[in-house]
């Protein structure tokens, strides 16, 4: 079976439309349509119900989905086994959200590789949705992220807290409500907390989904917003940014998620070193 067709099928399922799947796969919509049509002909069943609003799985499509995920996983594992250098005993597949690679995972990888040079590490940066999907499909050994989704067969363990504080480009900034306030989407928990803390807030002039973008914006053009305390510390010390009055702080916990059973020796060792790294990080922030 053509694995490009299988991969395209899974991307359409995730995206909910041929157009968004094409954008994600960096191919044309006609290519996506042709791959799905060929797959449906090969299987002898329609896999999707096409509507103007998008696509949904047919009964046959729902039955095929777990098999497609398994095929992709087997291919991935085969590639890893073939590509494994002769002096390596195992491959560790780790996923994390962008800000957590910057916060702890890059430093952890360096320390772990120094301790275990016989274990190759493959790192993945992704969205919460894609990371959880790849973990469930067996493509990742563990994931580090904020606000994980509880799933049967997986354990969620808290690693650390990230402190978010409001800072501004000038000392007298009024905070939310100002035209240059930047709202960073730190997740649904932060969104709910922000609404409770600032009930008069009616929206920001700039709304961003990535903290680094908002941070660069206020450094370049001015404004205020919530950012990790560790990120803004140097700018506050240099008096390029200022804490906003008595603005409350938000604790954003980070977690590691991994299967409850069947962990390899290298995964157990990696999790132990990650917990150690998180403890060391907490003592310095």
Characterization of the model:
The protein has ten helices and eleven strands. The chain has three domains: 3-81, Arc Repressor Mutant, subunit A; 86-155 and 255-284, Periplasmic binding protein-like II (D-Maltodextrin-Binding Protein, domain 2); 161-252, D-Maltodextrin-Binding Protein, domain 2, CATH 3.40.190. The strands form three sheets. Strands 3, 4, 5, 6, 9, 10 and 11 form a seven-stranded mixed sheet that branches. Helices cover 48% and strands 23% of the residues. By secondary structure, the chain is an alpha/beta fold. The relative contact order is 0.13. It is globular.
Spell the H/E element sequence: HHHEEHEHEHEEEHEHEHEEH
CATH superfamily of the largest domain: Periplasmic binding protein-like II
Q: Which geometry do the CA atoms define? A: globular
Biggest sheet layout: 7 strands, mixed
Which short descriptors sum up this protein?
D-Maltodextrin-Binding Protein, domain 2; 10 helices; 11 strands; seven-stranded mixed beta sheet; alpha/beta; two-stranded antiparallel ribbon; 285 residues; Arc Repressor Mutant, subunit A
